[in-house]
Specification:
It is a single chain. The protein is built from 13 helices and 16 strands. Helix 2 (14-20) crosses helix 11, helix 5 crosses helix 8 (284-293) and helix 7 (226-245) packs across helix 9 (321-334). The longest helix has 21 residues, at 430-450. With 461 residues, it is α+β, with helices and mostly antiparallel strands. The protein has a seven-stranded mixed β-sheet with strand order 5-6-7-2-14-13-8, covered by helices on one side. Strands 9-16-15-12-10-11 form a six-stranded mixed β-sheet, sandwiched between helices. A three-stranded antiparallel β-sheet has the order 1-4-3. Its main location: membrane.
């Protein structure tokens, strides 16, 4: 690296400053599951060839004005031994699934040191139910948003069918997550609605993997988008999970009131904050060139996202397809709203006039008034290798947010990962919540298959 690069400083963008503000200090935890064990030397070699050359991954954060939350990026030499952590593990441990989940959750208990570039990688060379090894990327959100980082992963990847070629990426900017709904009102207190201080508490991360072809079957049969499907699944799964919290039991845990009707209270206000991309999707070739030349290309990197709110109807339905139809109707209506653009412009103005601390306070209030965050990100469309190893799945999440629950949907080849991050005290049984989401999707899929009029003529791809 040239000395001029080391000495040069670049101001932190408004979006990056927001991600660093007190009470809104977000950090990404992304799990990459691999089909093979990790060759550490090869893995580091590939990191040096790609990720380490990215300007944001080779820069220190230099605080300029703590009160206003301003900082700059200063290039530095990266010592991979300080960023890649490889614990010595027993490959024959008794419960590898529990170990991996506990390890991931433990990383949410503290933030990254600013004495080095704000990222680290933990390599767990132990086989669990989903993969033969797991690599956990812990990245400060000020480095970039989810869409930027997924695009970067793809730019570092190669097709398994053609190791010299970059994977195929969608060039469509997903704008399905667009909504506007009463930001000032507070959601009803439920078993998943967090109170103040939740951003400081540890999170528990659970994931389930379903067939993306099955999701496409529902999508095509019902003439909806994948985003409509996963939003409907989210509403159905949350209804299923929350219904159990309103059932009455005796001291032995036996249900004493068997309700024929819906055990859920009527008119629950439960909304999801949605974070969506505002940047046109970058070409993978351009991102690869950016790492090769070790400089950022204008408009291709950073945090450029909007915040919107989606109201969810929490009710048990006899016909599971109603969840999908309602999701489509709501999204079709909300896509026409300009509310998300107004919120984005308002946040930019507040940031300019009053600084990141005040802007973070406004953003925090939006999240505190709502119950959860929902996102759906498109991943690689074929089998790929990342950093020299074949990839099985990607499961992203975050911590440091003022909510008790976040649900991510992430596609990878023919798989769709449901990744949940839940506050350990608020939601002590996150595996049950994840299972309820999966069961809800299976009910929807089976209802589609039973309706021969829907399936006739539809394709699964």
């Amino acid at each position: 690296m040239k000395m001029s690069q080391e000495e040069e400083e670049e101001p932190g963008s408004p979006g990056a400053r927001l991600m660093q503000a007190p009470g809104f200090n977000l950090c990404i935890l992304a799990v990459l599951g691999y089909t093979t064990k990790i060759d550490i030397d090869l893995f580091k070699k590939e990191l040096n060839r790609t990720l380490v050359k990215h300007p944001r991954f080779s820069s220190l954060m230099i605080v300029k004005n703590k009160k206003r939350g301003t900082f700059s990026w200063k290039r530095t030499k990266v010592d991979l031994d300080k960023h890649v952590i490889v614990p010595n593990l027993d490959p024959d441990m008794d419960n590898p699934d529990e170990f991996v989940d506990d390890y991931i959750s433990s990383l949410s208990k503290n933030h990254l040191s600013q004495e080095k570039p704000l990222w680290e990688i933990h390599v767990l060379n132990v086989k669990n139910s989903d993969a033969n090894s797991n690599v956990i990327f812990k990245i400060d959100h000020s480095i970039g948003d989810g869409v930027s980082l997924i695009s970067l992963v793809l730019a570092c990847a190669r097709k398994n069918s053609d190791p010299q070629s970059l994977p195929v990426a969608t060039n469509k900017r997903t704008r399905d997550n667009i909504a506007n709904n009463g930001l000032i009102k507070r959601d009803t207190k439920t078993a998943i609605k967090a109170g103040r201080g939740v951003e400081l508490s540890p999170k528990r991360y659970v994931r389930r993997i379903i067939s993306l072809d099955d999701v496409k079957l529902v999508k095509n049969a019902m003439n909806v988008s994948i985003n409509d499907v996963v939003l409907g699944v989210t509403e159905a799964g949350l209804s299923r999970y929350l219904s159990t919290t309103y059932e009455k039991h005796d001291e032995n845990g036996v249900e004493i009131i068997k309700k024929i009707t819906n055990p859920l209270p009527k008119n629950l206000r439960l909304r999801s904050a949605c974070v969506f991309n505002l940047r046109p999707c970058a070409r993978l070739e351009d991102l690869a060139e950016m790492m090769e030349e070790e400089k950022l290309l204008k408009g291709m990197w950073g945090n450029l996202v909007g915040i919107a709110v989606l109201p969810l109807t929490i009710v048990l339905r006899d016909d599971p397809l109603i969840y999908i139809r309602r999701a489509k109707a709501m999204m079709d209506q909300k896509k026409l709203s300009l509310g998300h653009k107004c919120v984005f412009m308002m946040m930019k103005l507040i940031m300019f006039l009053f600084g990141s601390k005040i802007a973070a306070g406004v953003s925090t209030q939006i999240f505190r008034n709502t119950t959860l965050t929902f996102s759906n990100v498109v991943g690689p469309q074929e089998e790929i290798s990342v950093y020299g190893h074949p990839l099985a799945y990607i499961a992203p999440s975050v911590f440091g947010f003022p909510q008790g629950l976040i649900i991510h949907y992430q596609s990878c080849a023919n798989r769709l990962v449901i990744a949940t991050g839940a506050d350990e005290k608020l939601i002590p049984n996150p595996r049950q919540l994840c299972d309820d989401l999966v069961v809800s999707f299976e009910n929807i899929k089976n209802a589609v298959l039973e309706n021969k009029g829907l399936v006739k003529g539809s394709e699964c791809c």
